[in-house]
Amino acid sequence: MKKKKVNLRDLKPNSEVQHTHNDGHNHGNGSAFKTYVPAIISFTMLIIGIGLDYFDVSFFKDWIRIAWYGIAYLPVGFPVVKEGWISIKKGDVFTEFFLMSIATIGAFVIGEYPEGVAVMLFYAVGELFQSAAVNRAKGNIKALLDVRPKEANVFREGDYKSVSPKDVNIGEKIQIRVGEKIPLDGVLLSEKASLNTAALTGESKPDSIQKEAKVYAGSINLESVIEVEVTNKFEDSSIARILDLVQNATARKSKTELFIRQFARIYTPIVVFLAIGVTFIPYFFVDDYIFRDWLYRALIFLVISCPCALVISIPLGYFGGLGAASKNGILFKGASFLDAMTKINTLVMDKTGTVTKGVFKIKEVKAIDWKETEFMQYLMAMEEQSTHPIAKAILEYKSEGEDFEAQDVSEIAGKGLKGIVNSKTVLVGNKALMIANNIEVPAETENIVESIVLVAIDNKFAGYVVIADELKEDAKETIVKLQKVGIKNIMMLSGDKDSITQQVAKELNIENAKGDLLPEDKLNEVEILKKNPENKVAFIGDGINDAPVLAASNVGIAMGGLGSDVAIETADVIIQTDQPSKVVRAIKISRSTRKVVWQNIILAFGVKVIVLILGAGGLATMWEAVFADVGVALLAILNAVRLQKMKWD
């Protein structure tokens, strides 16, 4: 089923989501010490109270004892009771807050004061553990996003000043130095610019643009310093929208989470009525019925039955996975995509900017009747006069000896350059330039699929240079690792020339590859794959032209380091480091997360069933009940936090 594209601008950081377990218990604000003060006070008073009880201190009786435990209860109990009351007023009666409130208040009613305080204290500690784990996961994601552009050089009061991109207004002028990312969308004010826009357009050639052309945040300035007029505020950038997504990541629940929440909504009222039954029904069947004893059993039953461990640990397991992924340079937009990633068996990938770097490099130099270094000196002398992106790749060649100087260089539109170097006429360009000057070109050049620069010196063909996009360092390793984790069906789809696409696919040992594709052609190929219900398809790409396929695939994966706003907005998973090998790591993290979540489910249900049976038979006290609920929750939380310590090779 095709996924509906989500407009990230509609996702506000404080948007309302379903009432969750830690509503009203946000411990992320303020100092760590203030956060833990209520639990510390309750714990200290509880330990002192238990000590006074144990030694049977004479003054610690009656109302003094009740008051002591009452005060110990308030710091951790009052927020929960308050939250339960707020939920009841909203019509949501059977929440875990309600269960914990009636169980602990009931313990006070029958004189089990230490148990009442202990249950609520451990519940509060569980909340703190949960909050700390969630904040840590969010912190990892935010720290990762902090590597994005942090400043913009804006022209104010007659000079350029470095400010946060958030403080730049529409219509202001910014300056971008060589090698810097453009921090905001805008219009070029300089006469011309050369930008690395591979991630935005899907084209492997750097983009040479003229004055008044549009430029986009994420493009890299390759040559001279340029000036840009801002057309969009920072809030509309991909960076800001991703941060919004992080804040709302839990809104996209996994199927497991949704099932547990729906289960808890039905399960909780059943538990309450069963507890009432445990209290009163034995009256009709037991000869020596004692109300206090059966009420105590019912309260134990309530504490054990509270879905606290499940409601906390399962979302936290997924959040642990999200945090672990972020530490590894991978941003999942929600827990549902962690689940979806575990089922992927088919991977379709773009070429330019995904497995290749999207930048030109010299692949081959062929000099005819010239020494290579001397041949390159003639060529480099001419290319120094050019602003074409290919010229920059040629000028990176390391030559020995003196630099030659070109004179009387003229550009022949659509063909190349003509000039004088060392009193020799030099032609540099394409085949059309050679033909126009009656220069015979060797037949071997016809079979070269990459970009080629032909050179003639004094009206005689002198050689050529092959310029090609370069594979990313981990591209070959990625294909091998994908096969090892069970992704057997790998396909490459590209808008680049089919001959180049087939050559790259051959280098990577990918059997199925197609080039010369329009965005709709890529979409059709993925739709054909999805017609087979056994195929769970992930697509990895980085350009605007990849957005339709990212949306249509079961899991859309975008290269986010230089990726376009549209690709990042449409994708479900973002690879922040632009390394294709991170896809393998994303699969491994997803599988580890699912494993931990199911461990937590089995642990929570298993222990609860055992202690429920013991509690109903009068063999378990409130302390066993505390372990069955809060203790298991703490174990599940620690298990979830373990995800952030794992290593995935």
UniProtKB/TrEMBL annotation:
Q: Which GO terms describe its cellular component?
A: plasma membrane
Give the EC number(s) listed in the UniProt record.
7.2.2.12
UniProt catalytic activity: Zn(2+)(in) + ATP + H2O = Zn(2+)(out) + ADP + phosphate + H(+)
Q: Which ranges does the record mark as transmembrane?
A: 36-57, 63-81, 93-111, 117-134, 266-286, 298-319, 596-616, 622-641
For this UniProt entry, the molecular function terms from Gene Ontology, in alphabetical order, are: ATP binding; ATP hydrolysis activity; cadmium ion transmembrane transporter activity; metal ion binding; P-type zinc transporter activity
Q: Which InterPro entries match?
A: ATPase_P-typ_cyto_dom_N (IPR023299), ATPase_P-typ_P_site (IPR018303), ATPase_P-typ_TM_dom_sf (IPR023298), ATPase_P-typ_transduc_dom_A_sf (IPR008250), ATPase_P-type_domA (IPR059000), Cation_Transport_ATPase_IB (IPR051014), HAD-like_sf (IPR036412), HAD_sf (IPR023214)
Q: Which residues form the P-type ATPase A domain?
A: 148-247
Give the record's keywords alphabetically: ATP-binding, Cell membrane, Membrane, Metal-binding, Nucleotide-binding, Translocase, Transmembrane, Transmembrane helix
Question: Where does this one sit in the cell?
Answer: Cell membrane; Membrane
Q: Where is the signal peptide?
A: none
Q: What top-level class of enzyme does the UniProt entry assign? A: translocase
As for family, the record states: Belongs to the cation transport ATPase (P-type) (TC 3.A.3) family. Type IB subfamily.
Q: What is this protein called?
A: P-type Zn(2+) transporter
Tell me which species this is from. Answer: Mangrovimonas yunxiaonensis
